[in-house]
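Extended Data, panel c. Modelled sequence:
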Amino acid sequence: MANTRLVVDYPPLKRHREELREYGRRRRRRLLIAIPAALSLIGAAAVWSAPLAVLLAAVAGFAILLMALPGSSSVDPGHLAGVEGEAAVLECLKKLPDDYLILNRVRLPDETLANGRRELDFIVAGPTGLWIVEVKNTPGHVQVMPGQKHWPLARRAGCGSRPSWNAMRNPVPQARAQVDALERWLLKNGVPARAQAVIVMAHPEVAISDADAAEMPVLVREQVAGFLKAGPPQPLAGPVALRLADLRPV
């Protein structure tokens, strides 16, 4: 298993799951009270009037159906989708051998940005080199188009529906900027090191066309660990892991 000592939690995902669990507990408590009460009321009504019992059964059934609906959480759905994609990719990266070091949710200092920080989904350091893993959790059929600002994206709304055409922003420039920022930061900290990037489409309902034409590897999440492990050996400078640890506040 990969070295995950520098991996941190995903608070939005944790909050989302805790809120759903709490909603589930409250729902079960309500149903345990409502179902016996409804059956007793319907049974009593049936003694006096069959039509009344049928009416009460319909009302009770509708109320119980509403009680049984799954709850929602306070986490923004768009933000949650991105975090869920990163968490799924993290589970795949954990399958790397123990000589691979993983960092997630990295806030990399970058003086070229107004806020002074650049967000990186993952940094992986191991025998095959230093990698940045950029995650996109977009569902649909993605067509890689090198050099284009956007990549075509086809989606289906449901079974039997016609695909709707959309587009996603080409993630290659973003990943390149991350590589430059990481190399620049390491050099400023006395470690000249080269980095590479891969783009991972994390959604379980995604397909990729023309991935071989991309300027950098574009993978589905199940491929990422095998790809990083299979690369040619690229020994890292000794202090790289120490410098990466500096990105985690004590």
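The first helix runs from residue 11 to 48. This feature is highlighted in the accompanying rendering.
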